[in-house]
Amino acid sequence: MRHFLFCLVLALAACGPRGALVMAPAGYQPRIAEPIWVAAQRDLSGHHVPQPWFSRIDVSVPPDRAPGDLAYPRPGGDPDREFLVTGGGRLADAGAFRRAIERDLAGRGPGNRDIMLFVHGYNYSFAEGVYRTAQLAHDLQLPGIHAHFSWPSRMKPYAYSGDRDGALYSRDGLVQTIELLAQARGRGRIVLMAHSMGGQLLMEALRQMALTGRRDLIGQIDGVVLISPDLDLRLFRSQVRAIGPLPQPFVIMTSPRDRALQLSALISDEPLRLGNIPDARPVADLDVVVVDTGAFSTGYGHFNLADSPALQRILARMRDLDRILPDEGGTGPGLIGGAVSRVEQAVQVVLAPAF
What we know:
11 helices
């Protein structure tokens, strides 16, 4: 057991160079750029800060990259191959953050005013979360404004418990950020998306809203997507009981072949985590959509949504997941090779590659 864990930690540590904020060469005019609105509960080194700070970071997307590729920049930066920073800056305070977003919204058409907030997972640097948000926005063809909440990660593969503490430390900051986005005038829908350990943080934020009498704020959330959530099943059910009616649609993306969650379950002395349940039966009494992406797993299989171009093509056609509410089994609307069925209260979607 100890040898297995040691080898896996070494493998995770050797996955490649860490992302850092690198400016594009002077005078570079990107063909593709994604402005990312950032609320951070940490400094750039990963340490906790008492209150969130806010910024806008413009990220250039390499023009000739393959979907699913995320190349972190090296010193000097190659804009044809790597994600780079092309502009933006720190904003004075929360009010300046909201007003800047409102100005952005005012310049957009009626169908382009949604807000997507991404919460990163375990072992992320500040820059990696920003680049990942830009990659998801571009590859999934998400309309509207793209925001990112950065919580304090120790950025070390073996600092799992430290990262979990850092995520829980950030509940107040995430609630504040969601409230600021909800207050933005002229906005469309608000969709919250969280990966891995970020799913636990997001659920804790929703629970905190409910326990402090902020059902009004929960009611302004137009969708939640938990991607490979690293979350104890009993804890998740306890959080749902406290939250009450969940924002809809409420999507849980799972994969029984997720090796990172298999390790997390092993460390936690559990058979499963929420993100690798084999089907919808463990949450069948909840109003959720369980999307099995295991057919697209490669490597550790912990972020299929970001890594698989085939899966991205499917999901880009099924953004309106609230329409997947079948009364019986069959192929759901907008899916390619997706078997959709109802399991008591839950909806189960099993995705398969199209041939």
